[in-house]
Design goal:
Oligomer: single chain
Number of domains: 1
Strand order of the largest sheet: 1-2
Number of strands: 2
Mean pLDDT: 82
Order of helices and strands: EHEHH
Radius of gyration: 18 Å
Structural class: alpha+beta
Helix content: 25-40%
Number of helices: 3
Strand content: 5-15%
Low-confidence stretches: none
Amino acid sequence: MTDWTDLRAIIVDAAGTELSAEERDLFAAEKPAGFILFKRNCVSKQQVADLVAAVRDAAGQAAPPPSPRPPLPQAAIFPQILPLWRYHG
């Protein structure tokens, strides 16, 4: 499995609903940081799940990277923190 810091700053897509051998080899070699799904890539929920799993497998990643951002606060606290945000326009 590849460390997320080894990923390349490129985003790729696939030509169809599953990866070709050429695409699999490219993703394995380049370790893209992202993958875009287009309408042509999506037929059913299971097929999309299989395609995403194949992309992750080819890139050597079992799961998406952890978010560098802290979790967002629950919406209930927004009225409490709204006065702290000031518009500077």
